[in-house]
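Supplementary Methods S3. Input chains for the assembly prediction are listed below.
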Amino acid sequence: MINKKALTSEAYLGLFLMLILAVLGIWAKGFYSINNVISLLNAYSYILIASIGMNMIIITSNIDVSTGALISVVCIVIAAFGKIGLPFGLLLPIAMLAGVILSTLNGLFITSLKIPAIVATLATTQIFQGVLPLVVEGSIYDLPASFTWLAFDAKLFGMIPLSLFMCLIVTVVFILFMRYSRFSKKLYAIGNNRTGARLSGINVNKTIVQTYAIAGALFGITAVIIATAGQRVTTTMGSGLEMTFIAAVVLGGTNTAGGSGRIFGTVIGALILAVIAPAINYLGISPNWSDAIKGTIIIVSVVVSTAKYRKRKRKLCMSAE
Amino acid sequence: MNGKRKILKFTFNKALFGIWILIFAAIALKNPSFLSAPYIINVMLRNIVEIAIVALPMTLIIITGGIDLSVGNIMVLAAMLGGISAPFLGAGGAIMITLFTGLVCGFVNGILIAKIKISPMVATLATMFLFLGLGRGISKGGSIYSYGFSEFMGNTSIAGIPLQIWLFLLLAALFVVILSRSILGRALYGIGLNSDAVRYAGINTEKILIGIYTVCGLMCGLVAFIWLGRFTSIKYDAGIGFNMKVITIVVLGGTSINGGIGDMKGTILGTLIIATLNSGLTVLNIPIDIQTIVQGSVLIIALISYAIINERTKRKTVVKINEKEELI
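Predicted structure tokens for the full assembly:
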């Protein structure tokens, strides 16, 4: 019993991650220098925060391919406010609010019109992407120091970036939330069997819209971390990121069919994705190979977890007979 | 009953056709220079033909309830390997390598989806990263340039019409026949509606799925020549927007992303609508950003109307299959 519990896909992933980290410790000189670790963790924190939101959406057996465009929009929104000189304490709630509004639109679009999530968010991607260049010409630049406060000055104990601390809070809150709250049970129920969930008294549409809203708030936090990294915010800050988030979720063992998956898997999946790029650099491999290696790791992990799932299913069938 | 169904199906594609005529007429009225034949052939149709060719096998895939997010990246990888090998192996070798790359990439997708049973979206998302990354790694992030044969494919005209449009017409006819007139086409709808039932009926669904993903890869390889010839150089990230454009066209053409419903003629009409919008809005001097919004809005309007119609069509399709079997 204990054996079975220990060998979850998260455990395999964790082992794999430790293997990577050990290899890096031996062969990559300087990988564990404080500067490198902190810059890696900074990238990790924004990938993880958004991936947690994506994970919740995928558990309900929906998906969001507009996240990248949505984050670009939020980046520009807070850059416009940051230009006036608003402090970080106001930028964060503004970003979260903007994220919630845009993501709720996605949710409403999917539920009220009964359009499959991938197509609906594909359409909203085009609209988000199209609106941006109309409002802003290329980029907002020369942002004041108050805007980049998070990236350069906000350090706990003089070295740990605040963004990492934010990521830690979000992760812990959501691990607890997804394990113990009543709301999270509804998400799994909807993902497993939508009609069954509806018949057992869950307001499916409302729950899905709420899920998108919560995810939107997380996308907003991610947008703040991305936007405040420099003094210039362009209109394509987030483009393409949605694929990284989905990959982190899938790598973490969440089935895109919905109804399964844990936040902890995503925590490890996102860390693997965040480690790859700097790891390759320190191992002396050309950074041009990083995407290929990412793809290979995702394929292998998905193949292994699918094979395991099928084996378990067959065992269940046999024991039932 | 029979007559009624015929009318419904007829009006469905005709509605798309009507929308296309409407858009076309509106743009032509605003700017009559749009109506010239050379412009329509050499700009409007020639610019969309790569997407249009890949949309044909993509329709088959989406009808089975699958999706392929990696098509653009297969195309780029195939074009790159062809372009790199051309100086060493000559045109013949480059052609073989390009087509073979497309074939293998599609086959890998098919195996992952049909044999290992990974959901199509996850499988092709992963291979998307892989193909993108291979392209980037092999080209070292640089550009790969066009060679003799791809230039021929991209820039030749026969009887005043570019070669790639002839190619598209030929393939479109072929795919229309496959989907609507063959046993294979029937099986594809069946897989989309109820894969298990089709398998129990004695059809080898795995083989069919591997087959269509491989054909899709092969078409990406074919398109790679045209793309490379038309732009003279290609970089690893050229295929990123391509995937979604192909899917947009197929969905606009009335194919349900849930599978089981769809029509090749709808896809062709969807292609024409997007082509007209793209080049028409350019003629009207509307900036490219508004074009993106317009495309998104057209997609949304189409989706809303399909969401209403599909519910009804789905019921009818089930009835239709039942009736067909009774007749046999």
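Residues 31-307 of chain A form a domain with the ABC transporter involved in vitamin B12 uptake, BtuC fold (CATH 1.10.3470). The longest strand of chain A covers residues 139-140.
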